[in-house]
User: Fold these one by one.
Assistant:
Number 1:
Amino acid sequence: MFSQMSPNVSGRAKAIKKITIAMIGAWGHGGGVLAALEQFPDEFEIVGWAKVFPEDNPQGLKATLKIGANAPVFENPAGLLKETRPQVVVVSTRLDQIAPLAIAAAQSGCHLICEKPLALSHADLSALYTAVKKANVQCVAILGNCAHPALRAARKAVRDGLIGDIVLCNARKTYKFGTDRPLWFGRRDCYGGTIPWVGMHALDFIMSVTGLRFTAVAAMQGNMSHPQYPDCEDHCALILRLSNGGHATLSLDFLRPPGAPSHGDDRLRVAGSRGVIEAGLTLNTCVLISEDKPPLKLSLPEPENFFADLVRKLRDDPESLAETTMSSFHLTRVCLCARDAADRQQVIPIPVC
């Protein structure tokens, strides 16, 4: 399906055939994925845009991206998949529509880059997993924070053994609620809950830095400040068991004041048997606190274009993303189990994907 780089001819540089990409939907973080590809017009080509709802306006995004300026806009995803046959589909729309649209794209043989969470129910997640495995395609959630310099520095410190064995992790995500959230955020059947929508990022912080998975979860959630959005929890607290026997906690909220200097504030603390790592994504800092030295601000790696590198892998070696696909499904399953735990007030075991 994918065109590989051609061999050198008379010593000339290798020529790379463009990988074809289409976008389904016009809401969410998918536009950011495509914008990350814009600086490489010789490698990536957008071949089509599809509406999910009549009011969708992909033309607005299309107008800003030269790599998709000539691509047609389809009134429905089925027409796009049939007519353009893209190699990669970005699914970015209202959250209840992600799983069925991703299943249709997988059945058409397309690799997937999807808004998160991948599904709002266990049944839909299992159906998507089955479709992806049957079609032998990759399905990656839009979770680019793992490439943040602060988290990459933390990951290196952990892997280098600078804090010993992982014992406890704390992740925090706080957002401004704002004044223009879609009304469907107030409906569980469309939004799915704040734990899947926001919590998946915080869980990814932990898993990307430690390499550990999650085996059980307890959670609480509520809405005390936004009654006009009844099913959009404005605060959530989770505790999870890690696969090495340690534990993790998450706090998620939409309570950041309007006057705060940034929309969000993301942080991660990893406590080990011989030290602590504290990473601030918003502040772009990573500090090591060890047994016998004062706190040390770690040097950060250079920024990288996570999504361009991701699509290159889908072009050149899609099997190299098999673990990333599994992680996307695992994180979605953890979120659904955590939401169940909050709804039922029970500790919920997390099944292995």
Note: Residues 1-13 have pLDDT under 50 and may be disordered.
Number 2:
Amino acid sequence: MNRWFSRFSRPLGSGADGPSCGDEEARLVLQLAGAAAHTAGARPYAPLATYLAGQAAAGLPPDLRLAALHRAIEAATAAGPAGGDAVAEAGPDRPG
């Protein structure tokens, strides 16, 4: 990834390294965020989709994490537009 993410992730995990991901994982997570935001038509869906995909992939070996991220991108694309879903209306000043 890059130095900012190294500094960000260090306090999130145990030990000096904290959680990390490889370049391919990072690319897929960003692709998922884009697919979720564009397909749903709502930018707030991107962080929530990537969080849920991270939960689904947590603890898997690297090759299965990549497969889980590919499935998440497909699911985000297949989910279609958000329409009037409440999360699309939520923001930092408005609870969802």
Note: The CA atoms of residues 69 and 76 lie 10 Å apart.
